[in-house]
Design goal:
Layout lengths: L1 H13 L37 H8 L12 H13 L4 E5 L2 H12 L6 E5 L3 H4 L4 H6 L2 E5 L9 H7 L11 E7 L9 H13 L3 E6 L2 H6 L5 H5 L4 E5 L10 E5 L1 H13 L8 H15 L10 H17 L12 E3 L9 H10 L8 E3 L6 H20 L19
Parallel strand pairs: 2-3, 2-4, 4-5, 5-6
Antiparallel strand pairs: 1-7, 6-7, 8-9
Helix pairs in contact: 2-12, 3-12, 4-11, 13-15
The structure holds pyridoxal-5'-phosphate.
The site of pyridoxal-5'-phosphate has 13 residues, from helix 4.
Cofactor: pyridoxal 5'-phosphate
Protein name: Aromatic amino acid beta-eliminating lyase/threonine aldolase domain-containing protein
Keywords: Lyase, Pyridoxal phosphate
Length: 403
């Protein structure tokens, strides 16, 4: 039974015992002891589900109030994250979007002000316009000249400095790493960071998936994070926690972000039940050291590279290089729409969202075997269609990437 196989795999990884589902109205959804459908779900790493050791941590968490800043489980997560990232302070937030938006709101003061970022950045494209509504900011999305990541030259060309009356000055540069699974090299971050300091521009990192860049060997967590005034990091994607992200920065900045968090209803009463799970996600999935030592992400990078290699060797093309846990199948060259690909996936018991495959740590070996069969089928289709014209049909605004 494939499902059993996936369960065993995860159980082995967690090194903990199964917790049997309790009989009752919710027993169908009680999947603490198994990755469940996540084992076959390539749509995003948000599908990873919490583990038995997270449940055990939740059972042992403190249940005190965090608006009063009295909850030891939450305070301990925040101070651990501050020290792991070489920052003074940290704030637990409900989502990556909340972390980014609080950071921008806290760095910015009074318009006219603008934020410079990659044109594909989550803060620009996938956060419901929060930078406009919450911070009244103009967001300047820049197309990187090298097609993969912003360089200092891209920034210099697009930054708005000075107080010329027609301009909307750049007050924050927001970088994203990884972006679509690709890495911004540490050397480039350092160049941009020096530039930002020189011009008194705040530098924010949307590090929802910075863990992946670190595990790929691009630099340690503090090597990256200390270059920024603020960083938001996600617990609920690749690390498998049920809820949450963390925002790190100076004491003064975090105090301001905590205040803004309260104003949008993000002050939490007994968050120990989620911060306990987040701590396990960091320790067990990312690992205990600054390079993800002892963690579980490395294996998914190896699997992603293996999938990319199989795909290209069979004649498929990739839209982006495979540097971490994402593989970007080019579907257009195969005359395949995203919907058609999802339907073929379903037939093989796999789930897709567009041509981007996210190889999270709960993906099973069985899923990769099924994927190989699927690749043969869709690439075989290409040869059958070789004389057909490429299908460019795509609905504007519906390309999957955000989650
Ligand atoms: C997922 C993601 C976020 C925010 O995610 P939430 O769904 O709000 O938790 C922010 N930045 C990037 C790069 C992301 O991939």
């Amino acid at each position: 039974m494939p499902k059993r196989k996936a369960q065993d795999q995860l159980k082995g990884l967690n090194g903990t015992t199964d917790i049997a589902p309790v009989d009752g109205p919710h027993s169908q959804q009680n999947a603490w002891s198994t990755p469940g459908p996540a084992a076959f779900d390539f749509r995003s790493d948000v599908v990873t589900t919490p583990t038995p050791s997270m449940l055990a941590a939740i059972q042992n968490c403190t249940l005190l109030d965090d608006v009063f800043m009295e909850d030891p489980t939450t305070i301990s997560l925040e101070s651990h994250m501050a020290s792991l990232t070489s920052h003074e302070a940290a704030l637990f937030v409900l989502s990556g979007t909340m972390g980014n938006q609080l950071a921008l709101r806290s760095h910015l003061t009074q318009p006219p002000h603008s934020i410079l970022c990659d044109y594909r950045a989550h803060i620009l494209v996938w956060e419901a316009g929060g930078a406009a509504s919450l911070s009244q900011a103009l967001v300047n999305g820049v197309v990187p000249k090298n097609g993969v990541y912003l360089t200092l030259e891209d920034i210099e060309k697009n930054v708005v400095l000075g107080d010329e009356i027609h301009g909307c000055p750049t007050r924050v540069i927001s970088l994203e790493n990884t972006l679509g699974g690709t890495i911004m090299p540490l050397s480039e971050v350092r160049r941009i960071s020096a530039f930002a300091k020189e011009h008194s521009i705040k530098l924010h990192l949307d590090g929802a998936r910075i863990w992946e860049a670190v595990v790929a060997g691009a630099g340690s967590l503090p090597d990256y994070t200390k270059e920024f005034d603020s960083v938001s990091l996600c617990f609920s994607k690749g690390l498998g926690a049920p809820v949450g992200s963390i925002l790190v920065g100076s004491k003064e900045f975090i105090k301001q972000a905590r205040w803004v968090r309260k104003s949008i209803g993000g002050g939490l009463r007994q968050p120990g039940v989620v911060t306990a799970a987040a701590r396990v996600a960091v320790d067990e999935t990312f690992g205990t050291g600054p390079n993800g030592e002892g963690g579980m992400l490395k294996k998914s990078h190896i699997t992603a590279k293996k999938i990319a290699k199989m795909w290209t060797e069979m004649g498929g093309n990739l839209d982006q290089p495979t540097e971490t846990n994402m593989v970007w199948f080019n579907l257009e060259d195969l005359n395949l729409t995203e919907d058609e690909f999802a339907v073929i996936g379903k037939k093989h018991g796999l789930r897709f969202l567009g041509g981007r495959l996210v190889v999270h740590y709960q993906i099973s070996d069985e899923a990769v075997e099924r994927l190989e069969g699927l690749m043969k089928e869709v690439i075989g289709r290409k040869h059958a269609n070789e004389n057909g014209s490429a299908n460019k049909k795509r609905k504007v605004g519906e390309k999957a990437y955000g989650t």
